[in-house]
């Protein structure tokens, strides 16, 4: 964004409240803070007071302001004023001693607010002073950090007694809070400090300590259930500062812009907005903001160390020199001035002098984190890694939230080639700055050095999506794809690099090359356009890109693009220029290496490089044969469109005619190369015809599979093929029971996002199932069961509701013959004709999976204890009823596939493309899912350890979202009706579907009329199953891939069909909110304070969410509407 636009976007909003009220409150706060010797808070409040817009004649004046001293009893005025005088002279122990008092004064001095505050604060500062003096005598920073304030324990005992007696005012509570913080009792400290700001909101020092504690406790909003901020405008300053501390710079900037409406002249707010721009790496906007601040307040040094960092990064030595001179004139004995001077010397390359000034800054303030970090940078420049590590570690000890210290440690260990250690520190930095491309690039480099290419690729992709200002990710992405053999992806990234360097001719030629969504990690869907010129050795990277693209286009037979790349390389020096002149590149591009290609006797004479074809055309133009060349080129184009007959003799005759008539050497070269080009196209056309025939054979084979001759038959197990019976009616459940709530606890949050649904054409195995095409889909966030529903959980449901599954109600269900005992086998006289190994077994159900003589307990069972195995023999009706009992739902097919991918794109399985994991990446071979091993359907060797179902917590998590058994084990029902076709309009073909669902019944009728779908043998439509099962084998039912689908009627069941539930984000939030409000209602005395959110309200809320797309806004509204 343009700098002017950035600054314009920070225009003030509406004022918070009346300026007169703010002025009166701040005036009183300044007097009170000044009397309390809280100089930092006094200065902060005074600046805010001065920043208010001019008021009327009735604004507060010192004469009308309330007085502080009259609140003191006459007997306490003398000791308090004397202690205050000692306090001002930094004689803290003496001030505390004065307020000990004699016997007559002891009670008043130990209970009155001002004596208690001054005595406790004086003792605290006396202890801090001694701690700093002792630490200064210790050379080891780690040992110095272990020196503590010896007064804290005594102060805690004294103040805790007064706290229990409720004798502490706002300022004394602040002292008690910082004492608890010093004792590392952070939760108690925050609670007391919050009480302090409730009593006295204008004490900015208390707010800063709350920010520090909240950030340390990882309370990202500064609120927990037991935290209640005061309803005061100071809470907005707190929220803004906390957001800035947590590197949420956009949110912080918006809050500060809102605050600036009430305090338009505030230097503090201006400096914070400038810091937000700096953290967002918008250095131009930040520099302009700091320069405007300096014009308004030229003697302010606070935050100017950040301004000096900007000048250092932009290498503006003159401006940095001027700033350093001004800082020395203002006050050279401040940490900020020392940092500015140190940056100036560092920019000049005088690193030893820079270290001297950074050490001076630390002598003035040992806890000034930027000085430790910058000193670590200087030691790195001096190759003193040990000192750099000490400096960075000290910075981390002082402030664990400063990502720069973690990043510096990572750089140091990377310099030492300790990449595993470096990766740990880079991860810490990334957790603090997840949107900073530098963190991801640093992690990627470590993974690359550790030969973990896939992880490196993911990190570089993330860096590219985060807006890689240093342009490090693009060349490395291209190289990784190139080394992995994915040349098309590599060409796409190299093309983007060249686009940024101004090679428009190459980019326009390469416009047809785009990253493939089915490529190594499907990075095409998140491509971000780059802006500005690339830096950091772009010349060499551009040469690398041109060289790769030249060979890439040559291998694909794209002469014009390869020629353009070679022409650019001729302007370079080195081996690349010689490679561009290599005639073998011409022959490779033109197909001369193809089998049976025409070989000219003049081959040895063709020594000119491919890029000189243009000059050959110019010579031909001078000879007047432009029309002949155009005719020849047209013939080449026509030939390139030929798919069938071999017209090579016609081209050869045309070549001979032109050669004999014109006898032009330039023409000879041009036409001969063109002839080879056409020959290459013909060879490619013949290969294409063969491939088309292979594709047709695969389609024919797939049609054969559809007829049932090479399929496991799990799609043929409808009730129409076995027992007829009425379909069960929907069962109603009232309320949400405790058992259902427990079942809902183990769900995983699936974030909102975008992915490509379906399988690409070259990897579709069952076209009749509708596995493709690939289509973009945008998903809202939702929740999904971590595990498949177990037998134990189903028993809870059945006992509580008395529900009978379709298998129990209708008396049978399907089991594969190999799993039945001889006794059960003898009782069965019916089979499914197309798949005779499937038998309708009487009395088979979820608690008797193999019929009457089977059970779930380990005693007498061939398969051991199976209570923790997935429940089976579940029809779609059963699964839907169970989900409704939990107030959940079956996942849509889009939800299931999106959750199974876990953020990966274009993969066969949740973890990648290999059956056993990442064997190709050096990882140990291990089973990742429960599928059939052996010869299907006769023998399952159970090499994975499970001849039938596996426990629900086996094989996992299968993806990064923590989901188990998404593929294999048992089929899982979805909520969608089955259709083998997917209809995309022109409107959503590119933009993507949003939370798509399967077709409705009325649409299925139309699909049947169109001839794309048939009802099953019982005249029913079918529901979609996903994930495959332990019965799947690649030779028969290769449907344990993510994109694979199967289908069955709603009342169909078998011993490999189970269930997994999903829940919308709102439903999950509503359940949690109702639980909290219900507990409060039980504890409340009198009428219940909350009304629980019912289904009618949920419908209104869903409509609201659909319109607003803003969950936070809804939560605020829900909290208001739920209160009576």
| CATH homology superfamily of the domain at 714-976 and 1016-1060 | paralog of FGE (formylglycine-generating enzyme)
Radius of gyration: 38 Å
CATH C-level class of the domain at 714-976 and 1016-1060: Alpha Beta
Helix content: 40-55%
N- to C-terminal separation? 46 Å
Please state roughly what percent of the residues sit in beta strands, choosing from under 5%, 5-15%, 15-25%, 25-35%, 35-45% or over 45%: under 5%
Largest sheet: 4 strands, mixed
Mean pLDDT across every amino acid position? 74
**Order of strands side by side in the largest beta sheet?**
12-11-9-13
Assembly classification: single chain
Keywords: Cell cycle, Cell division, Mitosis, Repeat, TPR repeat, Ubl conjugation pathway
Domain Cdc23: 21-274
InterPro entries: APC8 (IPR007192), CTDL_fold (IPR016187), SUMF_dom (IPR005532), SUMF_sf (IPR042095), TPR-like_helical_dom_sf (IPR011990), TPR_rpt (IPR019734)
Pfam families: ANAPC8, FGE-sulfatase, TPR_8
Describe the fold and architecture.
The protein is mainly α and 1124 residues long. Among the domains are: 301-399, Tetratricopeptide repeat domain (Serine Threonine Protein Phosphatase 5, Tetratricopeptide repeat); 591-688, no CATH class; 714-976 and 1016-1060, paralog of FGE (formylglycine-generating enzyme), CATH 3.90.1580; 1066-1122, no CATH class. It has 48 helices and 14 strands. A 4-stranded mixed sheet has the order 12-11-9-13. A hairpin with a 3-residue loop joins strand 7 (934-935) and strand 8 (939-940). Helix 4 (74-88) runs antiparallel to helix 5 (92-98), helix 13 (234-245) packs antiparallel against helix 14 and helix 17 packs parallel to helix 19. The longest helix has 42 residues, at 665-706. The N terminus and C terminus are likely disordered.
């Amino acid at each position: 964004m343009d700098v002017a636009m950035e600054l314009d976007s920070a225009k003030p909003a509406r004022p918070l409240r009346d300026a007169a009220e703010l002025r009166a409150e701040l005036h009183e706060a300044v007097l009170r803070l000044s009397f309390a010797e809280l100089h930092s808070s006094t200065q902060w409040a005074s600046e805010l007071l001065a920043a208010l817009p001019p008021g009327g004649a009735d604004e507060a004046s010192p004469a009308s302001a309330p007085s502080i001293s009259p609140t003191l009893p006459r007997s306490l005025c003398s000791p308090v004023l004397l202690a205050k005088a000692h306090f001002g002279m930094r004689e803290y122990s003496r001030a505390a001693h004065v307020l000990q008092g004699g016997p007559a004064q002891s009670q008043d001095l130990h209970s009155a607010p001002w004596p208690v505050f001054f005595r406790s604060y004086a003792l605290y500062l006396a202890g801090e002073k001694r701690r700093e003096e002792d630490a200064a005598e210790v050379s080891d920073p780690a040992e110095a950090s272990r020196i503590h304030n010896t007064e804290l324990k005594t102060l805690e005992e004294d103040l805790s007694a007064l706290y229990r007696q409720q004798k502490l005012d706002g300022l004394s509570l602040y002292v008690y809070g910082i004492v608890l913080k010093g004792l590392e009792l952070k939760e108690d400290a925050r609670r007391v400090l919050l009480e302090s700001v409730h009593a006295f909101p204008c004490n900015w020092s208390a707010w800063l300590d709350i920010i520090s504690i909240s950030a340390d406790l990882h309370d990202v909003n500064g609120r927990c259930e037991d935290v209640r901020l005061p309803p005061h405008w100071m809470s907005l300053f707190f929220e803004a500062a906390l957001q800035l501390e947590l590197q949420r710079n956009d949110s912080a900037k918006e809050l500060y812009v809102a605050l600036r409406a009430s305090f338009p002249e505030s230097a503090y707010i201006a400096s914070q907005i400038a810091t937000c721009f700096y953290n967002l790496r918008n250095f131009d906007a930040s520099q302009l903001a700091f320069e405007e601040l300096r014009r308004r307040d030229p003697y302010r040094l606070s935050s100017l160390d950040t301004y000096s960092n900007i000048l250092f990064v932009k290498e503006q030595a003159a401006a940095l020199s001027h700033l350093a001179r001004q800082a020395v004139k203002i006050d050279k004995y401040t940490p900020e001035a020392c940092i500015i001077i140190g940056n100036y010397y560092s920019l000049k390359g005088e690193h030893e002098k820079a270290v001297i000034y950074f050490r001076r800054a630390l002598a003035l303030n040992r806890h000034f984190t930027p000085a430790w970090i910058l000193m670590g940078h200087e030691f790195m420049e001096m190759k003193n890694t040990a000192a750099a590590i000490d400096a960075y570690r000290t910075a981390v000890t002082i402030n664990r939230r400063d990502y720069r210290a973690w990043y510096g440690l990572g750089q140091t260990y990377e310099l030492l080639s300790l990449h595993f250690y470096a990766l740990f520190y880079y991860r810490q930095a990334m957790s603090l700055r997840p949107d900073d491309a530098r963190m991801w690039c640093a992690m990627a480099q470590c993974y690359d050095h550790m030969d973990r290419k896939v992880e490196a690729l993911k990190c570089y992709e993330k860096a590219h999506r985060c807006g890689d200002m240093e342009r490090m990710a693009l060349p490395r992405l291209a190289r990784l794809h190139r080394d992995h053999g994915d040349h098309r992806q590599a060409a796409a990234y190299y093309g983007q690099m060249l686009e940024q360097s101004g090679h428009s001719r190459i980019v326009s030629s390469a416009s047809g090359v785009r990253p493939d969504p089915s490529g190594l990690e499907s990075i095409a869907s998140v491509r971000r356009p780059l802006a500005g010129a690339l830096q950091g050795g772009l010349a060499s990277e551009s040469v690398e890109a041109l060289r790769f693209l030249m060979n890439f286009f040559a291998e694909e037979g794209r002469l014009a693009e390869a020629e353009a790349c070679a022409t650019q390389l001729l302007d370079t020096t080195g081996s690349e220029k010689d490679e561009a002149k290599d005639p073998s590149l011409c022959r490779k591009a033109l197909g001369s290496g193809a089998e049976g290609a025409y070989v000219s006797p003049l081959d040895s004479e063709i020594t000119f490089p491919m890029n000189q074809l243009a000059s050959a055309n110019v010579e031909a133009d001078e000879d007047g044969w432009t029309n002949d060349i155009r005719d020849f080129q047209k013939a080449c184009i026509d030939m390139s469109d030929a798919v069938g007959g071999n017209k090579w003799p016609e081209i050869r005759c045309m070549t001979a005619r032109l050669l004999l008539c014109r006898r032009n050497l330039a023409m000879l070269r041009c036409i001969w190369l063109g002839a080879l080009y056409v020959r290459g196209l013909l060879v490619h056309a013949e290969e294409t015809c063969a491939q088309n025939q292979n594709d047709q054979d695969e389609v024919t084979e797939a049609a054969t599979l559809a007829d049932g001759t090479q399929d496991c038959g799990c799609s043929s197990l409808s009730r129409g093929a076995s027992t007829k019976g009425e379909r069960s009616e929907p069962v109603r459940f009232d309320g949400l029971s405790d058992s259902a709530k427990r079942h809902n606890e183990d769900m995983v949050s699936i974030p909102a996002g975008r992915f490509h649904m379906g399988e690409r054409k070259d990897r579709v195995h069952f076209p009749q199932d509708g596995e493709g095409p690939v289509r973009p889909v945008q998903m809202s966030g939702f929740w999904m069961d971590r595990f498949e529903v177990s037998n134990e959980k189903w028993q809870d449901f059945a006992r509580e509701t008395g529900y009978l599954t379709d298998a129990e109600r209708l008396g049978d269900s399907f089991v594969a013959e190999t799993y039945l005992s001889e006794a059960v086998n003898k009782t069965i006289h019916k089979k499914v004709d197309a798949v005779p190994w499937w038998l309708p077994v009487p009395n088979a159900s979820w608690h008797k999976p193999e019929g009457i003589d089977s059970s779930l307990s380990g005693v007498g069972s061939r398969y051991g204890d199976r209570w923790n195995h997935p429940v089976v023999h579940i029809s779609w009706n059963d699964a839907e009823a169970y989900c409704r009992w939990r107030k959940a739902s079956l996942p849509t097919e889009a939800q299931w596939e999106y959750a199974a991918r876990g953020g990966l794109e274009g993969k066969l399985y949740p973890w990648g493309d290999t059956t056993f994991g990442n064997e190709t990446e050096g990882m140990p071979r291990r089973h990742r899912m429960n599928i059939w091993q052996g010869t299907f359907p006769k023998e399952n060797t159970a090499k994975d350890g499970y001849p039938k179902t596996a426990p629900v917590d086996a094989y996992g998590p299968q993806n990064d979202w923590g989901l188990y058994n998404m593929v294999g084990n048992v089929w899982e029902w979805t909520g969608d009706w089955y259709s083998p076709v997917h209809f995309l309009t022109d409107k959503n073909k590119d933009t993507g579907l949003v939370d798509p669902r399967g077709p409705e019944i009325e649409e299925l009728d139309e699909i049947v009329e169109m001839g794309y779908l048939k009802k099953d043998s019982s005249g029913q439509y079918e529901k979609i199953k996903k994930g495959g099962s332990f019965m799947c084998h690649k030779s028969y039912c290769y449907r344990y891939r993510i994109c694979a689908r199967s289908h069955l009627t709603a009342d169909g069941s078998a011993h490999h069909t189970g269930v997994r539930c999903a829940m919308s984000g709102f439903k999950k939030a509503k359940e949690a909110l109702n639980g909290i409000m219900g507990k409060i209602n039980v504890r409340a005395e009198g009428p219940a304070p909350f009304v629980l959110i019912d289904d009618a309200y949920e419908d209104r809320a869903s409509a609201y969410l659909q319109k607003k797309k803003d969950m936070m806004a809804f939560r605020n509204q829900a909290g208001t509407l739920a209160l009576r």
